[in-house]
Write a structure and sequence with these properties.
transmembrane helix, PilN, MSHA biogenesis protein MshI, 4 strands, transmembrane, Gyrase A, domain 2, 2 domains, membrane, elongated, single chain
């Protein structure tokens, strides 16, 4: 009878952990982010161009109203006060004021669109996760809505926590999060943020 003199001290636990993030997946993620940035920048450019066109049209209308108002004021100065002319001047004054308010609102919306999306996508790039991809982003009344998918559902809560710490979403509360998953399908989710009361004021 022979005695076993060798002992196998090797264990699978001594092997280094398998890295899930390969160079290929990292490259695919970077390419996807670049394509997403390109599409978003194009959409933002189109939206801002439309706002600039509307603003230019309003400015043109306002200039015409200003000229009409000035002509009526000159006509009133040359003759005795006319109730109809006074009413027309008052109406034109109100229209000019309204156009000015609309131009101001469009300018504010244009600045928010061009700046807001830029900061948002910079923050999304900082918290990017190879297991999570977004297919739709909406910004409505200072509320953000993210729609996307995840191949690793357990990583979604961690990604949401990182998203909360970004500069763009500071002062926003994550109001709702809906998730669904079909058979052999990645997890689909819709995340909605809402500005907190103190921030919205």
């Amino acid at each position: 009878m022979t005695l076993k003199t060798r002992v196998n001290l090797f264990s699978d636990t001594l092997l280094p952990p398998v890295l899930r993030l390969s160079f290929k997946r990292l490259t695919q993620t970077l390419i996807f982010m670049l394509v997403l940035f390109g599409i978003t920048n194009l959409a933002t450019y189109v939206l801002v161009s439309g706002l600039e066109t509307n603003k230019a049209e309003l400015a043109k209308q306002k200039a015409n109203l200003d000229r009409q108002k000035k002509n009526l004021e000159v006509a009133m100065a040359k003759r005795a006060p006319d109730a109809k002319l006074v009413d027309q001047v008052e109406l034109l004054s109100q229209q000019v004021e309204l156009k000015q308010m609309l131009i101001g609102e469009l300018s504010q919306r244009e600045a928010l669109t061009s700046h807001g999306y830029s900061m948002l996508f910079k923050d999304l790039a900082r918290v990017a996760n190879s297991n999570i991809w977004l297919n739709r982003i909406r910004v409505e009344n200072n509320e953000y809505i993210f729609e996307g998918f995840s191949s690793a559902p357990n990583g979604v809560p961690l990604w949401v926590e990182r998203l909360k710490s970004t500069e763009t979403l500071t002062g926003h509360a994550f109001a709702t999060m809906a998730m669904s998953r079909g058979k052999d399908q990645p997890l689909a989710f819709i995340l909605t943020t809402k500005a907190e009361i103190g921030e919205s004021k």
